[in-house]
Amino acid sequence: xxxxxxxxxxxxxxxxxxxxxxxxxxxxxxxxxxxxxxxxxxxxxxxxxxxxxxxxxxxxxxxxxxxxxxxxxxxxxxxxxxxxxxxxxxxxxxxxxxxxxxxxxxxxxxxxxxxxxxxxxxxxxxxxxxxxxxxxxxxxxxxxxxxxxxxxxxxxxxxxxxxxxxxxxxxxxxxxxxxxxxxxxxxxxxxxxxxxxxxxxxxxxxxxxxxxxxxxxxxxxxxxxxxxxxxxxxxxxxxxxxxxxxxxxxxxxxxxxxxxxxxxxxxxxxxxxxxxxxxxxx
Length: 282
Ligand SMILES: C[S@@+](CC[C@H](N)C(=O)[O-])C[C@H]1O[C@@H](n2cnc3c(N)ncnc32)[C@H](O)[C@@H]1O
Description:
The strands form three sheets. This protein has a nine-stranded mixed beta sheet with strand order 1-2-14-13-3-6-8-7-12, sandwiched between helices. Strands 9-10-11 form a three-stranded antiparallel beta sheet, with no helix packed on it. It contains six helices and 14 strands. The chain is globular. With 282 residues, the protein is α/β, with parallel strands linked by helices. The protein has two domains: 7-162 and 200-278, Vaccinia Virus protein VP39 (Rossmann fold, 3-Layer(aba) Sandwich); 164-198, no CATH class. The structure holds S-adenosylmethionine. S-adenosylmethionine binds next to strand 14.
C-alpha cells in the first residue's frame, strides 16, 4: 500500500466515496454519515462512544470537553447507540468485525442489543482492558477495567490474525543458546513459541497518564497500543478501518501507522481539529 495517503476533510453533506484510496476525517453526527454509506463497505469498525457518565467530559486543566448527558438516562443512551449499531452491522463487509468500547454502566445492555443485531453466533469476545490508575473506593472494589465487545459480521468469514506478545507465565522456563524458551521434562526439552504466548481476552495496557507523551488533552483518549492491537488482529494492510466516535483521532493514527485506510467521524469540531493536528494535517 502506498505511503502518504491524503486525508480529506469532508463536509458531511457530501457523500464519501470509499472506493477512493483516501482517508476521510468527517465533522458531523455519525448517524447522518452512516446513512450515506453503502452496505458492506467497511472492513473494521472500532468505536469508543460516550459511556453515559451524565457529566461533561473534561480533563482537569484541559481545554477540551464533550457532553455526555442523557436527560432520559440509560434508556435514552441505549436508543442513541442502538440505531447506530444497526448501521454498523449494515455497513460491515462479510469479512468485517465490530469492536465496541464501553464500561460497566452500559456494556451489559449493549451486549443484549448486539446479540440481537449481529446474532449471538457472531459474538467473538468480551475483551477486558485492565489498568491501574489513582482513585480508590472504600465502598466497592476499585473499578479499573473497561470492556470491548467484539462481533463478526459473519463468524467464520471474518478476518482474525492471532497475536503473540509478552512473556509466558510459567515457572521453570529456560532459554537455549539461540534464546528459545523451553522447559525440561522427563521426555526432554519442551519448547515454547519464541514469539511469546498468544494474546487472551484480558489486556493489561497502561492508561494514558498525565505525563504521557501521547496524551493530547482530549478527554477519554485511548492508548494507541490498544487500538493498534485491535486493528492488527482484525484487519489487513490496505483495509478500511472506521471510527464513528473518533475523538482525538486515535483510530486514524493507529490505522495510518499500520498502513490501513481510515474513515473517522466526530460531532465535536474541537475533536476534528485535534485529530488533524495529530495527523500533521492542520
Ligand atoms: C470517548 S470519546 C472518543 C475518544 C477517542 N477514542 C480518543 O482516543 O480520543 C467519544 C467521542 O464521541 C463523540 N460523539 C458523541 N456523539 C457523537 C455523534 N452523534 N456523532 C459523532 N461523534 C459523537 C464525542 O464528541 C467524543 O469525541
